[in-house]
């Protein structure tokens, strides 16, 4: 069965395959070509980690604005799909479009949702990365190039959160951090995360691989017991791959490792 046929079996599947995934792919293309990212990388060593991460989040969100301002076929089709399946969209009580909202209002709501999701994805990646840095340094005794290389091989940390249902992902993060609070934006911000609002302790990690090939992963997580009421869809950034066949999420992970290295966090 083709993705197009599958997409009409459940509204959530249609939303992910025909609206969210094409928009995320377009966003990554724009990120790679973004002059502001080149400038941020070139000057990262002049700022602390919070300054760099806040700039990065602002850049991420501005790319969303650019894509929606420019419009085009990808956005038009995404809005058509969202319009058809608007009742299945998880708006998280933020800028929920009114019943019968036109495409202009739907576009504003979808823009807000996309930016919120970008910020949330960044925060979750930062929690994983910061906690892995602490584990690598304090438990494995790594620093500098050895810590950096181990982190770059540890993309499974982010990937493990990308294949869960939303409710399961919330439960997974609560178990990993031991914190009952739900990680949501704007309840929490990247400033909170960099400041240590959430942390995954060492006993939630394992290291695998021989010396020089080590990577960090999460220890086994007990089943949440949650039964999803809708299909479980991979995060679009994990579903999509680059020219090397790697999930696009890996590019985000590498970028964050670069930022933390250049901010002096891996020494």
What does this structure look like?
It is a single chain. The protein is an all-alpha fold and 267 residues long. It has one domain (3-262). 58% of the residues lie in helices and 3% in strands. It is built from 12 helices and 2 strands, in the order ααααααααααββαα. It has a two-stranded antiparallel sheet with strand order 1-2. It is globular and about 60 Å long.
How are the SSEs placed, and which strands pair?
Elements: H1 3-7, H2 11-32, H3 35-43, H4 49-70, H5 73-84, H6 103-138, H7 144-152, H8 156-159, H9 166-177, H10 190-194, E1 205-208, E2 215-218, H11 236-239, H12 248-262
Antiparallel strand pairs: 1-2
Helix pairs in contact: 2-4, 2-5, 4-6, 5-6, 7-12
Please sum up the structure shown:
Helix content is 58%, strand content 3%. It is mainly alpha-helical and 267 residues long.
Number of strands: 2
- The arrangement of helices and strands along the chain is HHHHHHHHHHEEHH
For the CA atoms, what is the radius of gyration? 19 Å
Strand order of the largest sheet: 1-2
**Poorly predicted runs of 5 or more residues:** 1-7
Mean pLDDT reading: 93
Apparent shape: globular
Structural class: mainly alpha
Helix content: 55-70%
Strand content: under 5%
Main sheet characteristics = 2 strands, antiparallel
- Put simply, the count of helices is 12
Tell me the domain tally.
Answer: 1
Termini gap: 50 Å
Any key phrases for this structure?
mainly alpha; 267 residues; single chain
């Amino acid at each position: 069965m083709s993705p197009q046929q599958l997409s009409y079996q459940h509204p959530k599947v249609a939303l992910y395959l025909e609206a969210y995934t094409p928009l995320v792919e377009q966003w990554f293309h724009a990120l790679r070509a973004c002059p502001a990212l080149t400038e941020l990388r070139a000057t990262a060593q002049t700022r602390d980690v919070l300054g760099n991460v806040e700039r990065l989040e602002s850049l991420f969100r501005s790319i969303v604005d650019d894509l929606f301002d420019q419009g085009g076929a990808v956005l038009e089709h995404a809005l058509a799909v969202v319009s058809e399946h608007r009742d299945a969209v998880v708006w998280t009580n933020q800028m929920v479009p009114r019943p019968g909202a036109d495409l202009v209002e739907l576009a504003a709501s979808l823009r807000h949702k996309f930016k919120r999701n970008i910020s949330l994805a960044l925060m979750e990646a930062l929690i994983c990365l910061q906690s892995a840095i602490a584990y690598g340094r304090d438990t494995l005794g790594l620093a500098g190039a050895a810590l950096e290389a181990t982190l770059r091989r540890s993309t499974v940390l982010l990937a493990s959160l990308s294949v869960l249902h939303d409710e399961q992902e919330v439960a997974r993060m609560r178990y990993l951090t031991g914190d009952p609070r739900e990680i949501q934006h704007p309840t929490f911000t990247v400033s909170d995360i960099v400041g240590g609002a959430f942390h995954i302790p060492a006993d939630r990690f394992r290291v695998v691989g021989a010396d020089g090939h080590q990577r960090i992963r999460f220890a086994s997580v007990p089943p949440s017991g949650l039964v999803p009421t809708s299909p479980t869809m991979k995060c679009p950034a994990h579903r999509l791959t680059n020219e090397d066949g790697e999930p696009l999420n890996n590019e985000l992970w590498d970028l964050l490792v670069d930022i933390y290295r250049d901010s002096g966090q891996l020494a």
